[in-house]
Design brief:
alpha+beta; 2 helices
């Protein structure tokens, strides 16, 4: 065995490590660069953003997940803004473009929890969470490929908008009069969180979803684009909107791609050591 001058490491010993690193690089990069969104589940997320309504800035954070099969599309909507202040932070509509199949724009299934928020003088407490008994939201065709899922549709709306969760004391302590109305079943909870013990939402569904009949030969060929989240009660699908034209990469895919780049650097370093 030949030893490099001035070192106790053999050239031969580094070859298996280098080959393994090269193989891992190829696998990770190929998987990381694979097209995202041809799977049966695709997600669109706004991330933390602001909208401006009547010169007032409102923070927003929402996501929509489309679960696609050959017979149905189920849309799950989440509002990730905790302890909201105003109704303009509530999700009231979703618009989207879909190709690769035929969608029947009518609600075929649903599941969510409604509730209210107490009004002044003791505002912010959660009123009567309850499982949904009607779909409330509707699905509509805007064209042959464009659709809306909404409770705040073209004419606006004041009931059934989706809110984020309460503060750490199980109270909507920041809610103003547009949210704390004292009316039961006015809002839908949409946090996808698990609540426990005496928390108001503990036994209830916190992931609102609506299903529509759908037909396609291959669910993985379905493409969804041009997703528009509508917030607030205003006409034309809300008082403010956020566009998410392409789906959001899954965190795992982003991490995997980053891992591939890291392994590429390791392999390059191993080659340099071998040549010394």
């Amino acid at each position: 065995m030949h030893w490099n001058r001035g070192t106790k490491n053999s050239v031969a010993a580094s070859l298996p490590v280098t080959r393994l690193a090269n193989w891992l690089v190829c696998a990770a990069v190929v998987i990381g660069l694979a097209p995202i969104g041809r799977a049966n589940t695709v997600e669109f997320a706004t991330g933390p953003q602001n909208i401006t309504v009547s010169s007032i800035v409102y923070p927003e954070n929402a996501s929509a997940t489309f679960d696609i099969t050959s017979t149905a599309i189920t849309v799950q909507l989440l509002n990730l803004t905790v302890n909201p202040i105003d109704v303009n932070q509530a999700i009231g509509s979703l618009q989207f473009t879909i190709t690769g199949g035929t969608l029947n724009p009518a609600i075929a299934s649903y599941g969510f929890t409604t509730f209210g928020i107490t009004a002044a003088p003791v505002a912010g407490s959660i009123i009567s969470p309850a499982a949904a008994t009607t779909a409330i939201w509707s699905a509509n065709a805007l064209s042959t490929t464009d659709f809306s899922l909404c409770v705040v549709c073209a004419g606006g709306g004041t009931t059934g908008l989706i809110l984020g969760g309460p503060d750490g004391t199980d109270t909507y302590s920041a809610a103003d009069g547009t949210l704390a109305t004292g009316t039961s079943a006015q809002w839908i909870i949409g946090t996808d969180q698990t609540y426990t013990g005496t928390q108001a939402f503990a036994p209830f569904d916190t992931t609102p979803s609506w299903g529509m009949n759908f037909s396609t030969a291959d669910p993985t060929s379905v493409v969804i684009t041009n997703v528009i989240f509508g917030f607030g009660e205003g006409t034309s699908y809300g008082s403010g909107v956020i566009d998410v034209p392409v789906e959001t990469p899954e965190p795992g895919s982003v991490i995997l791609f980053g891992t591939g780049l890291g392994l590429l650097a390791i392999a390059a370093g191993a080659r340099r050591l071998r040549r010394r």
